[in-house]
From TrEMBL:
Pfam families: UDG (PF03167). GO terms for molecular function: pyrimidine-specific mismatch base pair DNA N-glycosylase activity; uracil DNA N-glycosylase activity. InterPro entries: MUG/TDG, Uracil-DNA_glycosylase-like, Uracil-DNA_glycosylase-like_sf. GO terms for biological process: base-excision repair, AP site formation. Keywords: DNA damage, DNA repair, Glycosidase, Hydrolase. Residues 23-181 form the Uracil-DNA glycosylase-like domain. It is an enzyme of class 3 (hydrolase). This is G/U mismatch-specific DNA glycosylase. The gene is mug. It comes from Nocardia macrotermitis. SMART domains: UDG, UreE_C. Its EC number is 3.2.2.28.
Amino acid sequence: MAHSAAYRPTPADLAAAQDRTISDLLAPDLRVLFCGINPGLWSGATGHHFARPGNRFWPTLFRSGFTPRLFRPDEERELLPLGLGITNVVARTTAKASELTAQEYRDGGQALTERVLHYRPRVLAVLGLGAYRTAFGRPKTVVGPQSETLGDTDIWVLPNPSGLNAHYTLDALADEFRKLRETTGFE
């Protein structure tokens, strides 16, 4: 369901995208696997991760130094040669993450664990404190590196870059992502 950069889903496209899934952007031995909560309706309609205008994932990647320029969602495959990938805790699209159940998060955490053990990224970066707490049963987790690992994969929890996350400005998001990049030696 790839569309051009100029594609803007209609209200009918967005409504039809409810409960869709989009493909993970995965390869073995990535440097960082970014993990969103779940795809939004724009992502479901376009087939691209973090596609909604106003989502700050792509500007945050650029400002934090993970990408050499600002990528568009339809350029997501260009992350793989940089050693970066994207997945989600829960696969199905929703208008809001609040539509997900605690059981979906727990089931998603188990499926995510299996993907991480199979693909072996150096770091799993979960983009959402609440999602990580619920999916992995860690209610006291804070943003930053975690003491536990998944196999040989380190875990970081980062703020969610959704425009709905008003607790973090774009600069504050970029600072948190930059800490991950610098701590893991990502050039």
